[in-house]
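Query structure, 498 tokens:
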């Protein structure tokens, strides 16, 4: 048996009591035969917590354990003993209170990804550090006009984000519609990836994979491998899809069914858009209507080329060549049979965010995302994770992240135009906390609609122009590449709205 690495021992911490034999040599996992993922079980939904009387108060315990992943026991991390954690359902104007309990062996914290809430104090403050054994009480007040949609929560302590999410710390947040969209069924599909070794451990990720952005060997939906969904013909189902993968781009198809997209991230379209496939970069979400047709259909994740640095070799974690899996990876199987159901009422018109394209702009900025070989430790603490000279540097405007430094200062209430420039041959999904971005141009081509997202893909050697209304809140927050290995390695900056 091979002992787990020091990094993994620190990550999984107290799991040794429940799932390992502890001896003089340290922690060694119980030996079991390698088990194939269990496929074909019915799709399960994470437990739900719903707000009442304008408030939702929950306790989230981040802890190691022997948790179920792909139908087998795995040494992983979870919120409240599950992967994913509970789905939090709230409404505009609500107050969300989360008591975070850290039972990990590492520092952690919490980020409510995409929510338009204050970044100060005990709000969406990613500069808070909750040490092992500690607790922290978060409180988020949603504006009365907060956009409905699909959001999520996950750790955001710099340097540890990718490892903790890869090990299972994530969950969904739903902000309900002010006027309900009628659906035969509503499903939350939290898509994640990870890798398990023969003993059910999540192995150490090699430095090369961190630099490229790790992709796990297992792609899971609600912690399950290719679960089954049953429906009758003519049903209009609502699928809330979240890409919680550390680095994997999800190009999704569900051939044989009618797909209509209500919106991406916090953005909404006035009327549903018919689509054949969806591209979700890490952190993106989709609000999808599926109108069912008799027969079996498979939700697939097709290969998406997100680029690589010259000479960077792929490893075994995930397909690197489209020829490896020409039909992609089966994520879930939809089986439609039985008597047809009656058609539902039309989807009500959706109220989107304001269109900033014709308004005035207070400032123009360039945000340059770069990756290249460095000669050692860089400004702001270097590569992180113990990696030193000769490793790749991931920077924004030439600098690696330094928590003590503020990179951008914005006047509260201003609208700014940011040109996101990617000088590397790898795609970088750019995420701004608290304030959503309206996409104005992509590689010089103007958009023909008001497109709002909080994760925007900046293609290799490309550029995207966005506008941001820094309204409602003041405070210090962050922006970064949502390939979370790249964020941990330095591709992050701090913005202060005053």
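Result returned for the query:
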């Amino acid at each position: 048996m091979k002992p787990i690495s020091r990094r993994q021992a620190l990550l999984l911490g107290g799991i040794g009591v429940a799932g390992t034999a502890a001896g003089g040599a340290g922690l060694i996992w119980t030996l079991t035969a390698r088990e194939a993922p269990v496929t074909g079980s019915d799709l399960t939904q994470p437990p739900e917590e719903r707000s009442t009387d304008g408030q939702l108060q929950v306790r989230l315990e981040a802890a190691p354990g022997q948790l179920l992943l792909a139908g087998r026991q795995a040494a992983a991390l979870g919120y409240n003993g599950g992967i994913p954690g509970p789905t939090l359902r709230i409404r505009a104007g609500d107050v969300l209170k989360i008591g975070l309990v850290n039972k990990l062996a590492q520092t952690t914290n919490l980020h409510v990804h995409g929510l338009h809430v204050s970044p100060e104090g005990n709000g969406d403050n990613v500069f808070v550090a909750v040490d092992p054994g500690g607790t922290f009480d978060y409180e988020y007040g949603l504006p009365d006009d907060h956009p409905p949609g699909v959001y999520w929560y996950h750790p955001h302590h710099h340097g540890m984000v990718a490892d903790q999410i890869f090990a299972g710390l994530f969950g969904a947040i739903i902000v309900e519609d002010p006027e309900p969209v009628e659906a035969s069924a509503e499903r939350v599909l939290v898509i994640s990836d990870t890798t398990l070794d023969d003993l059910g451990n999540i192995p150490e990720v090699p430095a090369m994979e961190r630099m490229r952005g790790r992709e796990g060997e297992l792609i899971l939906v609600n912690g399950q491998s290719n679960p089954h969904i049953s429906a009758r013909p003519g049903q209009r189902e609502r699928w809330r899809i979240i890409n919680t993968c550390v680095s994997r781009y999800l190009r999704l198809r569900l051939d044989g069914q009618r797909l209509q997209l209500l919106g991406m991230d916090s953005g909404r379209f006035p009327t549903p858009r018919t689509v054949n496939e969806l591209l979700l970069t890490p952190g993106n979400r989709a609000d999808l209507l599926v109108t069912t047709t008799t027969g079996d259909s498979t939700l697939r994740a097709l290969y998406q080329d997100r680029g690589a640095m010259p000479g960077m070799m792929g490893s075994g974690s995930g397909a690197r060549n489209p020829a490896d899996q020409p039909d992609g990876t089966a994520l879930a199987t939809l089986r439609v049979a039985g008597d047809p159901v009656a058609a539902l009422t039309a989807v009500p018109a959706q109220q989107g965010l304001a269109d900033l394209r014709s308004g005035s702009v207070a400032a123009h900025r360039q945000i340059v995302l770069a990756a290249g070989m460095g000669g050692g430790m860089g400004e702001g603490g270097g590569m992180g994770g113990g990696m030193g000279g000769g490793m790749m540097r991931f920077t924004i405007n030439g600098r690696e992240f330094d928590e003590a430094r503020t990179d951008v200062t914005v006047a509260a209430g201003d609208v700014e135009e940011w040109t996101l420039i990617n000088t590397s041959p790898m795609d970088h999904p750019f995420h701004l906390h608290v304030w959503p971005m309206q996409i104005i141009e992509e590689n010089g081509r103007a958009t023909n609609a008001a497109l709002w997202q909080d994760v925007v893909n900046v293609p290799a050697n490309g550029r995207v122009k966005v506008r941001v209304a820094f309204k409602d809140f003041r405070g210090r927050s962050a922006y970064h590449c949502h390939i979370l290995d790249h964020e941990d390695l330095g591709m992050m900056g701090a913005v202060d709205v005053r």
